[in-house]
C-alpha cells in the first residue's frame, strides 16, 4: 500500500512534467469551461461576498453551527515550503501569498478526499455523520455505487497535484472562482478564489478535479450546491434527484468529502 506522499509522487510523475513559468494563455476559442462561479455579479470580490464566504471563527459559526476546530482560525497555518504554482505571482493574482493559499487548499482537499475514501469502505451505521452525508449528497447509493464513488475519489486525488494548476488574471477569467479546460487539462484559478474561506477553496479544487476526471462534463452542468435541485442544510433531496445523477455531479464529491472530514455539513454553498 502506498503512502499519500508516494501516491502523489507517482501521480505527478505520470501525469505532467514540472510547470514552466510563462504568461497565462487565453482559453482556446470554442473550448468549454467547467467552472465554479460566484452567483454575485462582482464575481465574489465585493464586501458582501467576502462577508458571506468568511469561515466560522471562535465567535461566529456558519448558520448557527458550532465552529469546528478545522475552521476555527483564519488564516490557517501555512505549509513551511509551498511549491511555486504556475503564474501565481502577485501581478497575476493580486495577492502576495497565492502560492501558500493554494497549497493550503490543495492539502486540505487531499484530506477531504482521504476522509471520504476511508468512510466509503464500510456500510453506513444508523445515526452517524457518514449515513447523513451519504443521504444528503449521494441519496441512496448501493454497495456497488459506494465502490464506484470511492474509485472516483481515487482518480480525483490524482488531479490534486501542483502541476495541475495555473493562476489567471481578470482579463482571462470571467467571474469564475476557478475552471477546468479540456484543451490544456489545467485548473485555472481566478481572483475570486482567494476571497473564499479555507473550506470553500478546498471544495472548489475537488469540484474542478472531478471535472478533470470526466465527472459532470457531458451536457449541461449538474446543479450546484445551493440550487433548488441540490439544497444546502438539513434538506432531503428533491423529487427527481437520483443517486446516478449525484454520482455525476462534482459538487457531490466536494461537499461529501468536506462533510465527512469536518464531521458536519457546510451551512451554505461556495458559489
UniProtKB/TrEMBL annotation:
Native source species: Metapseudomonas furukawaii (Pseudomonas furukawaii)
Q: Which domain of life is it from?
A: Bacteria
GO molecular function list: metallopeptidase activity
Alphabetical list of InterPro entries matching this protein? MetalloPept_cat_dom_sf (IPR024079)
Q: Where is this region: Disordered?
A: 1-89, 222-245
Q: Where is the composition biased (Basic and acidic residues)?
A: 49-65
Q: What is this protein called?
A: Lysine-specific metallo-endopeptidase domain-containing protein
Q: Where is the composition biased (Low complexity)?
A: 72-83
Amino acid at each position: 500500500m502506498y503512502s499519500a506522499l508516494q501516491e502523489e509522487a507517482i501521480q505527478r510523475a505520470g501525469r505532467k512534467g514540472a510547470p514552466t513559468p510563462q504568461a497565462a494563455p487565453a482559453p482556446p476559442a470554442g473550448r468549454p469551461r467547467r467552472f465554479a462561479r460566484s452567483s454575485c455579479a462582482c464575481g465574489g470580490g465585493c464586501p458582501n461576498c467576502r462577508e458571506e464566504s468568511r469561515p466560522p471563527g471562535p465567535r461566529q459559526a456558519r448558520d448557527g453551527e458550532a465552529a469546528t476546530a478545522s475552521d476555527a482560525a483564519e488564516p490557517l497555518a501555512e505549509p513551511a515550503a509551498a511549491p511555486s504554482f504556475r503564474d501565481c505571482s502577485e501581478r497575476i493574482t493580486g495577492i502576495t501569498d497565492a502560492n501558500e493559499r493554494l497549497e493550503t487548499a490543495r492539502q486540505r482537499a487531499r484530506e477531504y478526499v482521504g476522509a471520504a475514501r476511508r468512510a466509503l469502505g464500510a456500510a453506513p451505521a444508523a445515526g452517524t455523520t457518514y449515513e447523513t452525508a451519504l443521504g444528503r449528497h449521494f441519496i441512496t447509493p448501493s454497495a456497488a455505487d459506494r465502490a464506484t464513488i470511492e474509485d472516483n475519489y481515487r482518480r480525483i486525488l490524482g488531479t490534486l497535484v501542483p502541476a495541475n494548476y495555473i493562476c489567471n488574471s481578470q482579463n482571462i477569467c470571467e467571474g469564475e472562482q476557478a475552471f477546468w479546460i479540456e484543451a490544456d487539462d489545467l485548473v485555472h484559478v481566478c481572483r475570486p478564489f482567494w476571497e473564499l474561506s479555507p473550506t470553500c477553496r478546498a471544495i472548489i479544487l475537488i469540484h474542478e478535479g472531478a471535472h478533470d476526471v470526466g465527472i459532470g462534463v457531458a451536457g449541461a452542468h449538474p446543479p450546484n450546491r445551493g440550487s433548488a435541485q441540490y439544497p444546502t442544510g438539513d434538506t432531503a433531496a428533491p423529487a427527481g434527484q437520483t443517486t446516478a445523477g449525484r454520482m455525476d455531479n462534482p459538487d457531490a464529491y466536494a461537499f461529501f468529502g468536506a462533510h465527512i472530514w469536518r464531521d458536519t455539513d457546510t451551512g451554505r454553498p461556495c458559489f
